[in-house]
Write a structure and sequence with these properties.
The complex is a heterodimer of chains A (about 350) and B (about 200). Chain A has about 350 residues and is an all-alpha fold. Chain A is about 75% helix and about 0% strand. In chain A, strands 1-2 form a two-stranded antiparallel ribbon. In chain A, helix 1 packs antiparallel against helix 6 and helix 13 packs across helix 14. The N and C termini of chain A lie far apart (about 50 Å). With about 200 residues, chain B is α/β, with parallel strands linked by helices. Chain B has a single domain, classed as P-loop containing nucleotide triphosphate hydrolases (Rossmann fold), CATH 3.40.50.300. Helix content of chain B is about 45%, strand content about 15%. In chain B, the strands form three sheets. A three-stranded parallel sheet of chain B has the order 3-4-5. Chain B has a two-stranded antiparallel sheet with strand order 1-2. In chain B, helix 2 crosses helix 3, helix 3 packs across helix 4 and helix 3 packs parallel to helix 5. Chain B starts with a helix and ends with a helix. In chain B, about 35% of the residues are buried. The chains are: A mainly alpha (about 350), B alpha/beta (about 200). At the A-B interface, helix 7 and helix 8 of A face helix 2, helix 3 and helix 5 of B.
């Protein structure tokens, strides 16, 4: 599919979703939808580093919270419109990602992941001790009564912002996947030493990946204080963000842009349903159980399962039947040589 | 070998390639200058097809010495040509896990070759192969030399070494004990002692 067609399609789907959500008139649907979209952005962002490059980041919550607290900071210091805050959060979280990228100079595999976990703890401690940002008491954000776009309620406006971010994240991920950059990242994931030996500048590409991934996560966090109204470090740096950002791409499939989308929509919706029908405490249990199930049944996620059943280009089944036929054919020929 | 290609940093001495000191250059920069290597234990990109494996150096290394990026069409042609020269055309759409040992070695060479090197370091490209497979690889390497690529062959299958080499260097525990014409080096008693034991 051509990129321009894909962009049009994503925009059309986003517009249709927004129209449906507004037409439904249900505020609950908007609140739940916002959370799911937020996870689409987080999962897609995590996947740029975790799925494409193979560096597992346990510190997603840190980037998300940095985005959120950037908004809190400016809300108190100099209020700005949300789209501007999103951009600033992207820069701040992107710089943090760049810093994290330099960790990959020396740390690989599990060691890198542990360092990202430590990064989240360090940043949480900083925020807890920063009184201007509310410290451990948290900060209240009084949401403006009116959205900047006439005719929309504030929550509708927030959902619109998140829809645009989700669409942007998906387009960015797909573009990276198909670009020279994506090929280089995949080479790093498969074998970093071999990648370097065939001319891939691994450090530079890893820095690009950590920066992009971090920036996208920060963007997902920037509107959050306006959505939730009250933010405190314990929940902003909470485990659910880190776990979900990893689990969603894993369940959906990490090597394809659609993987995080599928995982986020599936897990995000399931968690929203569980929250209202059972209890919000069940959320992480669901994630854990699904993750265990998928690791056993479909280690490459839903996209991987699909590809193994139907092939990468939808031709898998035909190729499979052909290969069994040619295998039996070669058995025949070996028999005939023996008899000859 | 790792010092030549930049994977390890050497503490003494210098590595010069085409009149240029390589100190401070990472492996990917050396590859771009025309110094390619293959690995003793094949390290293919497991999630990519054979053709895509060969595409990586074409995207990242081959363009830099021409001073421009190759177009999609040029890359496609080069992939086909490299696979053809390594007799891997049939396997272009296979994944590395489905290759035989000898095809895996060929892929290793093909990927190094796609970077369009002036010097290729082939690290034990034939270890563990059968005699006919060794002959296969030697024939491919000889064709590379004829195409103007210098090949450093690291090998201890002597039949292959003798058939291939124009100059033979013997290292024992990191010390050079002989260097020169292959036949003369083989007559050197010290080499015989090192190879066969006392």
């Amino acid at each position: 599919m051509r990129t321009s067609l894909f962009v049009t399609l994503v925009a059309a789907v986003a517009a249709a979703l927004f129209a449906l959500a507004v037409a439904s008139g249900s505020d609950y649907l908007l609140f739940a939808g916002y959370t799911v979209l937020q996870f689409v952005v987080l999962a897609t962002a995590w996947n740029i580093l975790g799925g494409y490059t193979g560096y597992v980041n346990f510190g997603s919550a840190a980037f998300f919270a940095v985005g959120a607290y950037t908004s809190v900071f400016f809300h108190k210091a100099y209020p700005l419109p949300i789209p501007v805050l999103v951009m600033i959060a992207a820069v701040v979280a992107g710089l943090l990602g760049l810093g994290m990228g330099y960790l990959t100079l020396r740390l690989r595999g599990a060691f890198f992941s542990i360092a990202t976990l430590a990064l989240a703890v360090v940043l949480q401690t900083v925020v807890v001790n920063w009184h201007f940002l509310g410290g451990s008491r948290g900060a209240y954000i009084i949401r403006p009564a009116l959205a900047p776009i006439p005719g929309l309620t504030y929550i509708q406006y927030l959902v619109l912002v998140m829809l645009v971010l989700a669409a942007g994240a998906l387009i960015a991920a797909r573009t990276i996947e198909r670009s020279k950059l994506g090929t280089g990242l995949a080479a790093i994931r498969d074998d970093e030493v071999a990648a370097e030996s065939v001319g891939v500048p691994t450090l530079r590409l890893k820095l690009i990946a950590t920066t992009l991934s971090g920036a996208l996560m920060g963007m997902a966090g920037a509107p959050f204080p306006y959505y939730i109204g009250y933010i405190e470090p314990h929940s902003a740096f909470g485990l659910p963000y880190a776990v979900n950002a990893i689990a969603m791409p894993m369940i959906g499939g990490t090597t394809h842009w659609a993987g995080p989308l599928i995982g986020a929509v599936l897990l995000g919706s399931l968690q929203q349903i569980a929250t209202v029908t059972i209890s919000s405490a069940v959320n992480l249990l669901i994630v854990g159980l699904l993750l265990v199930g998928f690791v056993i049944v479909a280690p490459n996620g839903i996209v991987g399962l699909w590809q193994s059943l139907f092939g990468r280009d939808g031709q898998g089944w035909r190729r499979f039947s052909r290969s069994t036929r040619s295998a039996s054919g070669s058995a025949d020929s070996s028999r005939s040589t023996r008899s000859a | 070998m790792n010092c030549l290609s930049g994977t390890l940093v050497h503490e003494t001495g210098t590595v010069r390639f085409a009149g240029r000191d390589l100190a401070g250059l990472g492996p990917h920069q050396r590859t771009r200058l025309g110094l390619a290597r293959s690995f003793q234990l094949p390290r293919p990109f497991a999630s990519m097809t054979v053709a895509d494996n060969v595409r990586v150096p074409l995207l990242y290394a081959a363009g830099s010495r021409r001073g421009r990026r190759l177009s999609e069409r040029e890359i496609g042609e080069r992939v086909a040509a490299v696979l053809e020269s390594m007799a891997l055309t049939e396997r272009a759409r296979s994944f590395p896990r489905d290759l035989t040992q000898v095809d895996m070695r060929k892929l290793e060479l093909a990927r190094a070759l796609a970077a369009e090197p002036r010097l290729l370091i082939a690290d034990e490209a034939m270890a563990g192969l059968s005699q006919s497979e060794v002959d296969d690889i030697v024939a491919l390497l000889i064709r590379l030399v004829e195409a103007g690529i210098t090949v450093i062959l690291i090998e201890h299958i002597m039949s292959a070494v003798m058939r291939f080499s124009q100059r033979l260097v013997v290292l024992v525990s990191g010390r050079k004990i002989a260097d020169g014409d292959p036949v003369e080096v083989m007559r050197n008693p010290e080499v015989e002692r090192a190879y066969l034991g006392q």
